[in-house]
């Protein structure tokens, strides 16, 4: 009985300590560059943030050109040393990064599935530029509620594929057994982040295929058409995936 009481006391103390910690404001630092304002945990080495700022500034114009739009003038970039700090701030439990509109992004210094924080930064920044392209394409004046409803239909496979491609998060198809075995995913599966998250492994080659087969102009049209391959390329979803697989088979698997 005494042992059980001790365990309960320890548990309560640990719980209280946790709640105290999460309610203590985090010590953060600020670094400003031409197009980015970095707000980051003070425990993160400033040298690393400077390296990230150089990478983002060097890719600012390139990604804007690739997506044929002008990124936001200044993007608030929040970087967290602790995942629980990120979750508390963003309420995002299922990922390592996210955006708030066209000029604010968040990510964890050590992201799941990606050891290179520079690629994570470019990945999330690309999301802001993609969103900017979609907003630029809307008729003005823009009704925000109507746009939010429309944007909720934007397909995951294209949203993540664009960022994976721009961040150069290439995964060699030879390392993916399901591609080696000819069991390539279709768009329904690629739209599912939870069921294997295959878009993060296949996204680079999907965008690579689109640019190779249909060109830059049609790639932008596909984004503006919210991933509707039938309207943009005049092929069914299944045809699109089958032809993408033939492309990677010839380039990477034979």
CATH structural fold name of the largest domain: Glutaredoxin
Q: Unreliable stretches, pLDDT < 50, 5 or more residues?
A: 17-21
Q: Biggest sheet, in brief?
A: 5 strands, mixed
Range of strand content: 5-15%
Amino-to-carboxy terminus distance: 67 Å
Overall geometric form: globular
* Strand tally: 5
**CATH superfamily annotation of the largest domain:** Collagenase ColT, N-terminal domain
Architecture overview:
The protein has a 5-stranded mixed β-sheet with strand order 1-2-3-5-4. It is an alpha/beta fold. Helix 2 runs parallel beside helix 4 (117-137), helix 4 crosses helix 6 and helix 6 (156-166) crosses helix 9. The chain starts with a helix and ends with a helix. It has 11 helices and 5 strands; from the N terminus they run αββαβαββαααααααα. It has helices at 2-23, 46-66, 83-90, 117-137, 144-151, 156-166, 177-180, 187-190, 199-224, 229-233, 237-253, and strands at 28-32, 36-41, 75-80, 97-99, 104-108. It has 2 domains: 27-144, 3-Layer(aba) Sandwich (Glutaredoxin), CATH 3.40.30.160; 151-254, no CATH class. Helix content is 58%, strand content 10%. The longest helix is centred in the C-terminal third of the chain and has 26 residues, at 199-224.
Question: Gist?
Answer:
58% of the residues lie in helices and 10% in strands.
Spell out the blueprint of helices and strands.
Elements: H1 2-23, E1 28-32, E2 36-41, H2 46-66, E3 75-80, H3 83-90, E4 97-99, E5 104-108, H4 117-137, H5 144-151, H6 156-166, H7 177-180, H8 187-190, H9 199-224, H10 229-233, H11 237-253
Helix pairs in contact: 2-4, 4-6, 6-9
